[in-house]
Amino acid sequence: MSRNVVFVTIDSLRADHCGFHGYERNTTPTLDRLAEDGISFENAIAPGPTTPESLPAMFTGRYPDREGREGGGANDRQGRIRELIDTSVTIPERFDAMGYETAAFTPNPWTSRYFGFDQGFEYFEDFMDKDRSAGIWERMVSSGGSTAMVATRLLLSWLQRENTFKPWRSFVDEVEDWVDQTESPYFLWLFLLDVHFPYLPANERRTQSRWRTYEADLRLYAEPQDEPYSPRVHDQLVTAYDDALRDTDDCLEWLYEFTDETETSMVVTADHGEGFGDHGTYGHHDQLYEENVHVPLVVTGGPSDSVTEPISLRTLPRLLTDVANEDWPQVREKTRPFVGTQTADESRQAIRGTDWKFVRSDDEGELYVLTDGEERPLRDMEALGAEDHLVEQWHSGVRQGREIDIAADEVTREGGI
Description:
With about 425 residues, this protein is α/β, with parallel strands linked by helices. It has 13 helices and 18 strands.
């Protein structure tokens, strides 16, 4: 019998702030328990450092094609992402073809219907109809977006607690209603934004005053994010982030208790990480260091296993269906000796092994050895040349694989998936 699959994507969750990855604060007790009882991938790597770079690849297994496109505004990204989704067999389409009921709840505008993420879902809730600032978002996408427009929409959303500021508790009843009215097997996708900036944990999860939390968020929003903050502000930011993560862990506890663990597998991961001055930047931008792309990946319902080999989140379309079919060896075999990640404009690329990492930006290369969760620079120029060659191999494989995947998806669609 096929299992129900609940796929949880937590925005901006870096792996090293989870307890089972060695973090000293009690941020993820539920996720820690799920990791201990299920399959935990210790070296899961996101396809990119931001949501619009990572989620399309996670949903389709491949990157958007940049050929013939210019610019980097929201409208350009919308075109590339929609084209990718239109020509791919997405995760929900795979489950629909398997006879699953499918639903999604995602308050992140970058994963809304504007970008085609509703494709394949029978029920899709992106809360845009309920967001009084959605008109600003639509104009921002169609025009490419201005700083003033983005700021206005963020302010309205914050005041109304909509979309980017929508806490999981505000729509959990809708999720529960859908599950109660749905027959098994079902595929449910939840995108949780509570760990994303601004870090606004529920009152019961705040470990510092509301003022200190708001001050940290305001300074991160208003001040340059590539300049060092004082130790006080830095600590306030990290505390607010950790509190928001502990708040999000409560959602995982609710999901685990609400769903039948004998019939349901949960797959929990993140679309990217978050920087806190580790390499001179805060938030998530176009960096490919560990804090930006190393994310948790936990699968429940199968054997207990801790997997050290790297795995790319581009394998999720097939990994999730393998979970549904309880093909645990195939789930385990999605790892590789090294995996890659890149920015949307392909100006930065990185490859990640089990205990090493190479980051390339234009003509510059940085080789790191990974020890105790930290990146330590390695200055071996001969090794740099070898790793740069691996980047070229990986990037060439991405481009060649894109054509193969397009052809394969076309055949799959014609055959009814």
